[in-house]
Amino acid sequence: MRALAVAALALGLALPAIDAALAVEGKLVLYTSQPNTDAQQTIDAFRAKYPKVEISFVRDGTPRVMAKLRAEIEAGAPQADVLLIADAVTMEGLKKEGRLLAHDKADVSAFPAGVHDPAKMWFATKLITTGIVYNTKAALKPESWLDLAKPEAKNQLAMPSPLNSGAAMIHTITLTGNLPGGWSFYEKLKENGTLAAGANGDILRQVATGEKLYGMIVDFMPIREKAKGAPVEFVFPKEGVSAVSEPVAILKSSKNPEAAKAFVDFLISKDGQELALKQGYVSAHPDVALPAGYPARGAIKLMPFDAAKALADEPAARKRFSAIFEG
Residue span of the signal peptide, if any (predicted)? Predict the structure, then answer.
């Protein structure tokens, strides 16, 4: 009888949540920079909980997604309800322009302070860090960012250019704000023959083939390729790493804000965060395990980063980087 009573109580508690999910309905348009497979998995998992919501999505790199959204805003007809893109700096720009809708009731109690926007305009869904990849035949096994400026790495380092990548710009601003000497680190890299061009996939290819011995790259790519047998190792340098958080936000112009809030709630819920783990990413939720091939969460040191300050600093950082590498 006691077991039946407990079951009945559990069912009674679950029913209001089910009813609330069924009450959310209508169409929802997602603009995202997620890979297509990840985007579809995310939508499928959300719709399993909110079956009355019909989601369509547009997928491209963050710069192209933003170009499309900007063109629609200029025309007075933004189509997206929800934005799920690579970096918080872009979200800060939209927030400053008054384009985002706050989700005041979002439950962020499980997350450490500083992970999400304090004004609840955008919410981190992952932690994608940038560290060092090296070919296993390299004589120098780097442990520090400063190792990349050593003679052993001369003409052997490739990295994405922050002039073409939002994540690379965040990485550059983070390193120059935290490493001793700031921009002198990048000046030393240039003097050491560093190549700043291409996307993360290009960096991985160059290092895996031995064309270059070292690279700056997002964590999951070399960790996955190492598991497949590629001759690469990934290092989280001792000074710490930069990170992008693949934030999600609701546009103020959303035609279905209730469904959009439900989508955000799902992404930052334990279930949504465990989906990120299944996809092979580091979840932003502190209680979710890390994927295979990663160290313990406590062993990954994140460098301090202020998205609002980075937004203000970006023009100067772009100019300074260009002067070093293209001047």
Answer: 1-23
